[in-house]
Write a structure and sequence with these properties.
2 domains; about 70% helix; mainly alpha; 8 helices; elongated
Amino acid sequence: MNGFGSIDLTPHASAQHFFGAELRHCRLRAGLSQRQLAPLVLTAPTMIGKIEMAQRYPTLDFAERCDGALGCDGALVRLHDLVSSERAVAVAESARPSTDPADLLMRLLESMAGIVAIAGSKASSGARTSAVLDNIDAALDSAKATGAIRGLRRSELR
């Protein structure tokens, strides 16, 4: 908190954070609260707050409406291009599968827990055990394909 009831922003953290800080600066310079700005830009006050806090990405339409309502001379639209580029990189990086063995093992364990839960709903315990082991085999094969786990087979799980 900054002593005035609002949370301090971190514009240096990312383009998204910088956009949020600039939006707040323009809004305060115009003498508007989030609640007052919201109907002018056709959004909810909470969405303005989330964008200012870098919890949501702004759309180009939002940036254009705020530029017009706050008289920012296109600054928010120009910043939107930077935010969009940053977001595209973040999305691309998150789409890449992790090669960290700890991440892969954690995903495997989470999958195995789900498999056990599903198999637990089967009627007979013999069928349940067989189904669990079959699904664990498939998960292990998948993990081996990524090089995370080597040499572990169903026969070693019994």
